[in-house]
Specification:
Helices cover 47% and strands 0% of the residues. The chain is mostly helical. It is globular, with a radius of gyration of 12 Å.
Length: 66
């Protein structure tokens, strides 16, 4: 049984993130930040993003401070 939730409330408000067909947020940056660090790190590498800065942005986004 998968203990990870299929959705994260913040991703539901992002049309490019929430998968309406599947009804989940798996693969979304916010979901990856919370539940799949390897996928997040891989995404950062592909996007030439600094993992530390990306992590900070995701933390701020989840806290509601932009």
């Amino acid at each position: 049984m998968n203990a990870k939730p299929l959705t994260v409330e913040k991703c539901k408000h992002r049309k490019n993130c929430y998968n309406y067909k599947k009804g989940d947020c798996q693969g979304c940056n916010i979901w990856n930040y919370l539940y799949d660090a390897k996928a997040m790190i891989d995404w950062c590498r592909k996007q030439n993003e600094d993992v530390s800065m990306f992590t900070l942005r995701m933390h701020r986004e989840l806290e509601g401070a932009e």
